[in-house]
Amino acid sequence: MARLVFCRKYKEELEGLDQPPYPGAKGQDIFDNVSKKAWQEWMAHQTMLINEKRLNMMDMGTRVYLNEQMLKFLSGDNYDQADGYVPPPKA
Questions:
Q1: Which of 38, 66, 71, 90 has CB atoms 3.0–4.6 Å from 9's, for a disulfide?
Q2: Do residues 49 and 80 lie in contact, with contact meaning Cβ atoms separated by under 8 Å?
């Protein structure tokens, strides 16, 4: 049976992650309060931000920016979108 968490983003009980995504307190907080669905969506959004904004992951400022966007995304706050991105129409 899957481990359930009360997801911070979706405000409902959903399947949790299998393990913390980061070491330390931040990883444990995500593990305890973010669903697998929300985390997978963040990973896809992060990839899109990196690609569309041509972010350099070697730059500390980029990593700080992505961390800020992750916190906003997972909390349900307004977060940055890729410039010019139009989501596909829902079928």
A1: 38
A2: yes
Mean pLDDT (the chain) is 92
What pLDDT, in 10s, does the model give residues 2-14?
A: 899 999 999 999 9
Residues 6+ positions from 29 with CB-CB distance below 8 Å: none
Task: Answer whether 0.70 is exceeded by the pTM.
Answer: yes
Integer CA distances (angstroms), 20 to 27, 34, 35, 46, 47, in order? 5, 10, 11, 18, 19
Helix axes 36-52, 60-75, angle to 10 degrees: 140
Residue type, 24: G
By three-state DSSP, how is residue 4 classified?
strand
Among the residues of 20-59, which ranges form H helices? 24-33, 36-52
